[in-house]
Structure formats: C-alpha cells, structure tokens
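Hi V.,

Quick status before I head out on leave. The structure for the redesign project is tokenized and pasted below; the design run finished overnight.
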C-alpha cells in the first residue's frame, strides 16, 4: 500500500462544540434546571463554559483516562460535560439514576469513578450510596450558589467552580481517536449492568451519520429537544448531532410529562424531538385532553421499544407529525436503523409507504451493517419473512465490554444483538422479539411485539404488554396485561372482539388482565417482573 497523503487529524468530540461555537456561535441552548429558572445560552457560551469546566476538573486532579461520573438530567450543564470530560481525555460515565441502588453502586465501583457530578434532586440518593462508593473522592452538585446544598457528602458547587476559573482559552489536548470517551452501562435486566465504552471516533462518526437525511435529516432550521435521557446511550447522540448541524437545542431537564413538554415545544418552536414510546403516550394523551396542537413539531423519533402503529398513525393523521422509528441499543451507540422513506417505497403509494414505515423498525444506514442468521449461523434471505438472530457490525458497535476479558464479537466482527428480526428487499428491518421474550407455544413462535401492537390500538388502552407464561399443554401461552387511559371503560370482551379480526386465532391470549404495567429504568415494559407475577396463572 502507499500511505494516503491527507492530514491524519484524529476525530475528537470537542471539535464538534468548537465547530458549533464558530459556525453557529449565536444559536441557542435553552435549558430547564432543578430549582433554578429556565436558562438560555449559546453554543459560544457553551464552549466557554466547557473550557472552564475542564480547567476546574483538571484543578481537582482529573487526568487523561480517569472516569468522571454523572447522575444528571437533560440540562445544559450535563451537555457541557459531554464535551469537557472527553475533551480532557477523561471518560464520562453517565449513570442512570432510575436503576436500583445496588446497580448504581455496582456501576460507580466498576467504572472506578473518582468524581461524581449530580443534580440536586439526587442529593439524597448520593448520600445514601456514599458508604458503598469505593473510589469517588470528589462530589459536585450541578447547581448555582443560590440552589446549592453541600449535604453530608460535602459537595462542591459547580457554578462556583466555573466562576473561579479565568477566561483564558483552554488548550484541549490532542487525543487518540480510538481513546475511550463515554462509558454507558446497559440496564442489567439480566445480570449486572455491562459497561459499553464509546470511543471519540465512534461518537463523531455516529453523530455525522445520524444527522443525514436517511436518518434524523437535520438542518440549521431545526430545533431539537432530546426527551430520551442523556444517561441512556447519550440520548441517541442528539447532544452531538444537533451542534454539528447548527440546530437550536432545548433541554427539558427531568420534566417529561405531557404538559411540560408541550410548553417547551410551543414556546421554543421545537421541530424535532425523540424519546421512548411511554413519553409520547403521555404527550398524545395531553394533546387530546386539552385540544392543543404541537406547534411547529415536524418529526418525532421514537425507539427503545417497538412503536405502536396506532401512535405513529395518530401523530400523522391528527397532527401532521412524522414518526421516525429507530432501533438501536447501548452497544450500538445507539443508532442501528431508522425508518425514513425511500423512492422505491413512495412509488407504491402513500398507504404502502406508511405501512412500511409504521411497521418496521427502520432501514439500513451507512456505518452499521446488519445480518440475520439462523440457528446454524447461515445468513437468512432478505425476504421480509424469514426471521433470525440479528447481528451487527461497524465503527460504533461494541467489541468488548468495559473490563471484559474477551471480545463479544465473532471472528468476523459481528455482534449478536439478542434480538430476532427480519430484513426485506427494501433494506428495512423488523424486530419480532427479544430472544428472551419470544413466546414458544406448541413449538411455534408468537411475536409478543406484534400482539402488543394489535392490542394497544384498541380504544381506551394505554399500554399493552404480552408475555409468555408456562402452560401444561402448550409449554408456553401468551397472556395480555393492559393499562387503560384514565376514565376509559374497557372490558375483556371489547379487547377480544377488537383483536379477533387482527390476529390469527392461535395467537389469542389465554388471559387478559387489567393491571399496572411495571417499567424498567429505561422506560420499557419490564417483562421479567410480569413473567414472575403471572408465572403460575395458567398452571392452576
Ligand atoms: P436496556 O435493555 O438497558 O434498556 P438498550 O436501550 O440498549 O438497553 O436496549 C436495547 C434493546 O431495546 C434492543 O436490543 C431491542 O430489543 C430494544 N429496542 C430498541 N429499539 C427498539 C424498537 N424500535 N423496537 C423494538 N425493540 C427495540
């Protein structure tokens, strides 16, 4: 080979913010905060603040490679740390505060975090967990002096630390693009949480790819509000993709209820938002109750679990908002596929196009390869019918878990996602289930996702969960658990009558129950809890 003769400049996260401060310096970041008023700043301000934060952290002893943890909401301060910490060459470990105490404890100790920055609402949690933290030496509350409380952990005040630094430009170190930058743990629904360590290179490439027209389709007129948590796979990379594209950013802090989101959407002119289906269920219910409309909102990206078709349909038909379903996982940083139109589908007419977009997780994106394999590892055809284990590969896909002793990819670099899916000739992928949620009835598979999708469209139903439970004759049978909208009057007979024309008969749930549906720390239906709760329902 002959070496290329272009500049070997490494891809570094801080360059994204430097770019935004230069090219879109006056574009706003609007942020809610805990116990403080709505704050407005610009990308130029955010870079200056990231520089001060980096200097302050360095003064506190943070060095290249150290882990700095956060327990924080979607705010401009958390956003600054997305740049300041990796910019220093350190690793930002965003911890999900909704996990169980033991899991948070596990993560902080496993990551060996030395500094913990947290929002005021987590003071009690931090005080409670303090005795178990083996490595954290410095606690910083993300607040200004007026809202600050040092608490039993003697937390420093973030704004005081920033104010103590000067305005001299900070010289960001040059960092190997393959160096670790952000450490995100999976929620550990099976076993301990596992750490996924994103590299600078992976994050920058992911951010460039996710803004493309085939994905989020950003331009400088977009106003982006991430409603997926910054601690969950870095809010789908929106804190990186938005500044690259010069989009105004709106940070809702912890207030993800319908009324609070609507206030920001309307007042700030939000055009693009994203979050898990449960958030949008609440939002749509709010719009319906109040008769309001979603302002300038044009696109909503929804994922984390399957988007109910009825949700996508309501957004489009009632409010003219396009739903983009996304599939991904912490291990893929997280963009895997996203459902956006293509000319080939459009040529089949609007109904066919909608059908494809609403019933598929999304289409292939450059930078992440997908394949479906059968139980022998042979690749399945792209016929939209044959399902198999979904494998992925690419520069923002995991190779090995943090502190793991071996790679989790096969010899060709493929990572088994644990999902079962189909691929079709249009390049669209459809998840039929997570391997562990598949229902095996009399040797045949029933897709819990398809059944849930059918049930949640039934008028009055708010959330539908389907799990397989042991059955004396069929090994496992599906049961359907429903939560209804406040004031709705839905009976088992109504649901059965609604489902009958929509599903094959042998998929009919053996029981339909009205109960509260438990959610995981990442806002997904907690099927493990439901399986335990109803384990002997059909065995009695
Ligand atoms: P956790 O399990 O910790 O919540 P992840 O967010 O990484 O962590 O979960 C990834 C999983 O979520 C995927 O493997 C898949 O099963 C599920 N998932 C994500 N997006 C979708 C989607 N659009 N439709 C169906 N399942 C999805």
């Amino acid at each position: 080979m002959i070496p290329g003769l272009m500049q070997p400049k490494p891809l570094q996260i801080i360059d994204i913010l430097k770019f935004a401060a230069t090219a879109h310096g006056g574009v706003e970041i609007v942020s809610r905060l805990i116990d403080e008023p709505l704050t407005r700043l610009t990308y130029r301000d955010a870079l200056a603040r990231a520089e001060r934060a980096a200097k302050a952290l360095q003064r506190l002893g943070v060095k290249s490679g150290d882990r700095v943890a956060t327990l924080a909401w979607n705010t401009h301060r958390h956003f600054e740390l997305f740049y300041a910490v990796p910019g220093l060459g350190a690793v930002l470990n965003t911890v999900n505060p909704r996990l169980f105490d033991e899991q948070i404890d596990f993560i902080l100790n496993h990551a060996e975090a030395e500094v913990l920055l947290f929002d005021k609402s987590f003071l009690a949690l931090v005080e409670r967990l303090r005795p178990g933290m083996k490595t954290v030496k410095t606690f910083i509350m993300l607040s200004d002096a007026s809202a600050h409380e040092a608490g039993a952990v003697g937390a420093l005040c973030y704004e005081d630390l920033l104010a103590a630094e000067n305005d001299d430009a900070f010289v960001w170190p040059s960092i190997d693009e393959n160096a670790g930058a952000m450490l995100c743990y999976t929620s550990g629904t099976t076993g301990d949480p596992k750490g996924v360590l994103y590299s600078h290179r992976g994050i920058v490439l992911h951010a460039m790819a996710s803004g493309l027209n085939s994905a989020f389709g950003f331009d400088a007129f977009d106003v982006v509000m991430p409603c997926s948590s910054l601690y969950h796979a870095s809010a789908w990379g929106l804190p990186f993709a938005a500044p690259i594209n010069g989009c105004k950013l709106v940070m809702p802090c912890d207030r993800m209820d319908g009324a609070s989101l609507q206030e920001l959407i309307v007042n700030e002119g939000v055009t693009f938002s994203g979050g898990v289906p449960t958030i949008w269920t609440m939002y749509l219910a709010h719009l319906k109750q109040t008769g309001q409309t979603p302002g300038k909102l044009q696109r909503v990206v929804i994922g984390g679990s399957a988007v109910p078709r009825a949700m996508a349909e309501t957004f489009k038909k009632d409010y003219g908002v396009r739903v983009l379903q996304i599939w991904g996982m912490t291990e893929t940083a997280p963009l895997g596929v996203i459902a956006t139109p293509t000319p080939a589908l459009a040529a089949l007419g609007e109904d066919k196009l909608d059908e494809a977009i609403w019933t598929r997780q999304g289409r292939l994106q450059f930078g992440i390869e997908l394949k479906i394999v059968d139980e022998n590892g042979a690749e399945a055809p792209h016929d939209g019918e044959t399902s198999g284990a979904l494998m992925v590969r690419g520069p923002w896909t995991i190779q090995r878990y943090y502190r793991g002793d071996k790679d989790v990819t096969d010899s060709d670099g493929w990572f088994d996602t644990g999902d079962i899916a189909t691929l079709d000739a249009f390049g669209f992928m459809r998840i039929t289930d997570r391997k562990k949620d598949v229902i095996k009835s009399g040797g045949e598979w029933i897709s819990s996702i398809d059944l849930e999708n059918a049930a949640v469209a039934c008028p009055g139903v708010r959330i539908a969960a389907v799990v397989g439970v042991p059955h004396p004759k069929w090994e496992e049978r599906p049961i359907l658990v429903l939560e209804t909208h406040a004031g709705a009057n839905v009976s088992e007979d109504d649901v059965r009558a609604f489902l009958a024309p929509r599903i094959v008969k042998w998929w009919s749930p053996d029981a339909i129950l009205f109960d509260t549906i438990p959610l995981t720390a990442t806002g997904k239906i907690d099927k493990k809890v439901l399986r335990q709760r109803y384990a002997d329902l059909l065995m009695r």
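Above is the designed sequence. The pocket of adenosine-5'-diphosphate is lined by residues 186-187, 189, 233, 303-306, 325-330, 361, 417-419, 431, 434, 520, 522, 524 (CB under 6 Å).

G. will cover questions while I'm gone.

Best,
W.
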